[in-house]
Specification:
- Its main location: other.
- It is found in: Bacterial flagellum basal body; Secreted.
- Keywords: Bacterial flagellum, Cell projection, Cilium, Flagellum, Secreted.
- This is Flagellar hook-associated protein 1.
- One of its GO terms (cellular component) is bacterial-type flagellum hook.
- This protein has about 700 residues and is an alpha+beta fold.
- Among the domains are: about 100 residues; about 140 residues, no CATH class; about 120 residues, Alpha-Beta Plaits, CATH 3.30.70; about 90 residues, no CATH class.
- About 45% of the residues lie in helices and about 20% in strands.
- It contains 15 helices and 25 strands.
- It has a five-stranded antiparallel sheet with strand order 13-12-11-10-16, with helices on one face. Strands 3-4-5 form a three-stranded antiparallel sheet.
- The longest helix is centred in the first third of the chain and has 62 residues.
- It is elongated and about 150 Å long.
- It starts with a helix and ends with a helix.
C-alpha cells in the first residue's frame, strides 16, 4: 500500500468519524424534541483496484419505520376526531344536567308539575298559582337557553372548520416549499435529515386535522393525499376553500370544503372525502349530533306545552274569562273543518251559573252548531255567533276568538263519552282557545286539513330543497313552485320524480293532516333538506313549511318559541283550575263553575304522566309516551352520546399511545446508545489521526534518507 493510499484511508476515516460524531451530537441535542427521529450515517468500505481504500459515507438517514408512521398517522386522525366530539358532547351534557339536578331542564319540569300539584291542592290560593306559573316559565326559559347554546355551539364548530381549513392550507404550502428544498438537497447528495424532521412534524400536525396518507418520492419530495385518494399536494398544491355560514341557526345550509383540482376550474367537495380528524369531528357535530339533540329538545318542549294546553283547554278559570283568543292555526276562512265527536261552549255568569250553551258536533263532512250544519271556518264563526246572543265568534288570520257578552265569561268542555277531535285534538285545544302556553309559531303539525283542502298558497311562492348524499356531498338542488289548488296538488308536485323530490322519497298526509316523508329504496341515508320557502298561506303569515313542519327550522326552533301566557302571568286567576259541570239536564241558571273546584288543576298536574304521541326526533323513535318518560329518554340520549364519545376517546388515546411508544422505541433517541456511539466515533477518529501521524513519520523518515 502506498503512502497516498494510507493517507487517503486515514482521511476518509477522519471524515466518517466526524460525520458520525455530528450525527450523534445532534441526536443528543434533540433528545427532548417532540417528533424528532434520530439519524445515523450510512457508510460502506471503499475500494480501488480491488484493494481497500478507506471508508465512504453514502448518506445520513433518519431511523423510521414506515409502517409505524402510517399507523401513527391514522391513530392521530382518529384521536383528533374523538377529542373534538368528546369535548363538545361533554359540554352539551353539562348544559343539560342530570334528571336529579334541580336547576336542569329535567329538574325544572319536575318542579313545575309539583307546583301545579300544590296549586291544585288549594285552587283559591293565589301564591301557589303564582309559584306554579313561575316554575313553568323557568321550564321554557331553560329550553330556550339550551337551544340557544346548541345554536352557539354549531356556529362555533363552523368557525373552527374555517380556521382548521386555513391551517391545513398553511401546512400544505409549507410542505410545498420543503419539497423544493428536498429535491435540491437530494440531487446534490446533501444531508436532508433536517428537512425530513420538519416534514415529520408537519405530517403529525396535519394528521390531527384530517385523515391523510403520505407518499415519499425518489427525489425526496412528499406527496399528500386523503386516505381515499384525493390529492392535497403532488406536483402542485391544492388549496382548500371554505366560507362559514356565520350562524348556527336551524335550517341553514352550510357550505362545502372545496378545492380546485384542474386548470379548467373544476372543483370537488373535499369535505365528503374527509373521514377522520378534527375536521370530520367538527362536521359531524355541526351536521349530526347537535341538530339531533336540538330536534329532541324541541320535541320534548313542544310535548310539555301541548300536554299542558290539552289539559288547560278542557278546563276553566273561575270566574270564566270574558274572551278566549285562539292561536294561529294556519287555517283560512274557506277551509272545510272535518273531525269527529262533540264539544260544548258555555257562557257563564260571574257567579258560575250557566247563561247559555252551544253544542257542536263534528263529522267527516263538517259540523253542526246547535243542530245547524256548516263546513267552513267562516261558517263556524258565523254559526257560533248566531247560536247565542251572549257570545261572538270571529275568525281572522288563522285565529278563532270567542267573546262573551258584558259581565259574562266563556268556557269550553269536551263531551266525556264522545270527545271532539280535530286533527287529533279537542275543539278548544286545536284552536288554542284557552292555551296556558303560547307560541309564536305552530308547536305541532297536525293541521286537520285533508288532501282535498285548498292549499291556499299565494301564486309565485316556491320551496327550495338541497339533497345530500350519505357522505355529506350535495348532489342536487330542487325548487318546487306552488302548484294546483289543493293540498293533494302540492303533494303531487313535491313527489314528482322529474321536477320534485320523487326520486328520493315521497310525502304523504295522515288522517290528522300531518305530512311525513318516506325515503325511496336506495336513498334511505340521503338527507332531503329544506333550503328556502317563499310561500304563504292566505293572510296567516305562515309558510307551507311552518304549517306542516317541513325542514329543520320549523321543527327545531320550536324549543325557543314557548312561553306561559302573558295574560295568565299577569292575572293568575285566569289559570284554569276548575271544569264545567254540564250534562243533558243542565239548564240556564244552574251552577256549572265553582271556586273550590280543583279538577282542572289536577288535570294539569297529571299532564306529566298522561300518555301522548311523540314524533320521531333526532335518534329517538316516535310513539306513545308520557312527558316524564320522554324527558328521561332525552336525558339518556344526551348522556349516552357523551359516554360513547368518551369511550371512543379512551380507545383512540390508548391506540395512539401504544403506536407512539412503538414508534418512539424505533425513532427515539437513547442517551446511552448515543454516548456509546460518540465514544466509538471518538476512538475511530483518534485511530485515523494516529494512522495519519504514522504516515507522516514514515514520510519524514524517507525524506531524511535522501
Amino acid at each position: 500500500m502506498s503512502m497516498s493510499s494510507i493517507l487517503g484511508s486515514a482521511l476518509s476515516g477522519l471524515q466518517a468519524a466526524q460525520l458520525g460524531m455530528r450525527s450523534a451530537s445532534n441526536n443528543v441535542a434533540n433528545v427532548n424534541t417532540p417528533g424528532y427521529a434520530r439519524s445515523e450515517i450510512q457508510q460502506i468500505a471503499r475500494s480501488s483496484g480491488g484493494q481497500g481504500a478507506g471508508v465512504e459515507v453514502t448518506g445520513i438517514s433518519r431511523v423510521v419505520d414506515e409502517f409505524l408512521v402510517a399507523a401513527s398517522i391514522r391513530g392521530s386522525s382518529d384521536l383528533g376526531r374523538a377529542e373534538l366530539v368528546s369535548e363538545f358532547l361533554d359540554r352539551i351534557q353539562s348544559q343539560f344536567g342530570s334528571t336529579d339536578e334541580e336547576t336542569s331542564l329535567f329538574g325544572r319540569i319536575n318542579q313545575a308539575f309539583a307546583g301545579l300539584a300544590q296549586a291544585a291542592a288549594d285552587p283559591t290560593e293565589s301564591v301557589s298559582r303564582l309559584t306554579a306559573l313561575s316554575n313553568l316559565e323557568e321550564v321554557f326559559d331553560e329550553a330556550t337557553r339550551l337551544s340557544s347554546e346548541i345554536r352557539s355551539m354549531r356556529n362555533e364548530t363552523d368557525r373552527r372548520v374555517q380556521s382548521t381549513v386555513e391551517r391545513v392550507n398553511e401546512i400544505v404550502a409549507e410542505f410545498s416549499t420543503i419539497n423544493g428544498e428536498m429535491r435540491a438537497l437530494t440531487a446534490n447528495a446533501m444531508d436532508t435529515t433536517g428537512s425530513e424532521n420538519r416534514q415529520a412534524e408537519l405530517i403529525d400536525e396535519l394528521s390531527t386535522y384530517l385523515d391523510i396518507r403520505v407518499e415519499a418520492q425518489p427525489d425526496g419530495r412528499v406527496f399528500i393525499k386523503t386516505q381515499n385518494g384525493v390529492s392535497l399536494l403532488d406536483n402542485e398544491q391544492v388549496k382548500l376553500d371554505y366560507v362559514p355560514a356565520g350562524t348556527g341557526a336551524y335550517g341553514v345550509e352550510y357550505g362545502a370544503i372545496t378545492a380546485q383540482v384542474s386548470s379548467s376550474g373544476a372543483r370537488i367537495d373535499i369535505g365528503a372525502n374527509i373521514k377522520s380528524g378534527e375536521l370530520r369531528g367538527l362536521m359531524d357535530l355541526r351536521d349530526k349530533h347537535l341538530p339531533q339533540i336540538a330536534d329532541e329538545l324541541a320535541e320534548l318542549t313542544s310535548g310539555v306545552a301541548d300536554a299542558l294546553n290539552a289539559a288547560h283547554n278542557d278546563a276553566s278559570a273561575y270566574p270564566a274569562p270574558n274572551a278566549l283568543e285562539g292561536r294561529n292555526t294556519g287555517l283560512i276562512g274557506s277551509d272545510v273543518l272535518r273531525g269527529s265527536g262533540e264539544a260544548t261552549i258555555a257562557i257563564t255568569a260571574g257567579d258560575g251559573t250557566l247563561v247559555d250553551q252551544i253544542d257542536l258536533v263534528f263529522n267527516a263532512a263538517g259540523f253542526t252548531v246547535n243542530g245547524t250544519p256548516g263546513n267552513s271556518m267562516n261558517d263556524l264563526a258565523a254559526l257560533i255567533s248566531a247560536a247565542s246572543p251572549d257570545v261572538t265568534a270571529t275568525f281572522a288570520n288563522g285565529e278563532l276568538s270567542l267573546t262573551a257578552s258584558a259581565g259574562n265569561g266563556v268556557a269550553t268542555m269536551q263531551n266525556e263519552a264522545n270527545p271532539s277531535s280535530l286533527g287529533g285534538r279537542g275543539l278548544a285545544h286545536y284552536f288554542g282557545l284557552n292555551d296556558l302556553v303560547d307560541s309564536r309559531r305552530p308547536g305541532f303539525f297536525d293541521t286537520a286539513l285533508t288532501g282535498t283542502s285548498a292549499h291556499g298558497l299565494a301564486p309565485g311562492g316556491e320551496l327550495g330543497f338541497s339533497i345530500f348524499a350519505a357522505d355529506g356531498r350535495k348532489v342536487q338542488s330542487i325548487t318546487v313552485p306552488v302548484a294546483g289548488a289543493s293540498v293533494n296538488d302540492m303533494i303531487a308536485a313535491l313527489n314528482n320524480p322529474a321536477s320534485g323530490l320523487g326520486q328520493y322519497g315521497t310525502y304523504a298526509m295522515d288522517a290528522n293532516g300531518k305530512l311525513s316523508f318516506t325515503p325511496t329504496a336506495g336513498y334511505k341515508n340521503f338527507n332531503v333538506s329544506l333550503a328556502s320557502d317563499t310561500t304563504q298561506r292566505g293572510t296567516t303569515g305562515l309558510a307551507f313549511s311552518q304549517l306542516f313542519g317541513v325542514g329543520d327550522a320549523a321543527r327545531m326552533a320550536r324549543a325557543e318559541t314557548f312561553e306561559v301566557s302573558a295574560d295568565i302571568r299577569s292575572n293568575t286567576s285566569l289559570l284554569a283550575m276548575a271544569k264545567l259541570d254540564i250534562d243533558g239536564a243542565t239548564v240556564p241558571g244552574d251552577l256549572v263553575l265553582s271556586a273550590g273546584d280543583s279538577r282542572g288543576g289536577q288535570a294539569l298536574q297529571g299532564a306529566v304522566t298522561a300518555s301522548r304521541t311523540f314524533n320521531r326526533a333526532g335518534s329517538l323513535t316516535g310513539g306513545v309516551s308520557s312527558v316524564e318518560e320522554y324527558a328521561a329518554r332525552l336525558a339518556g340520549d344526551v348522556g349516552s352520546r357523551a359516554a360513547v364519545a368518551e369511550r371512543s376517546l379512551d380507545s383512540a388515546s390508548a391506540i395512539q399511545a401504544a403506536t407512539d411508544q412503538k414508534r418512539s422505541d424505533v425513532e427515539g433517541v437513547n442517551m446511552d446508545e448515543e454516548l456509546a456511539r460518540m465514544t466509538m466515533y471518538q476512538q475511530a477518529y483518534n485511530a485515523s489521526a494516529r494512522l495519519m501521524q504514522a504516515a507522516k513519520e514514515m514520510t519524514d523518515t524517507l525524506l531524511n534518507m535522501v
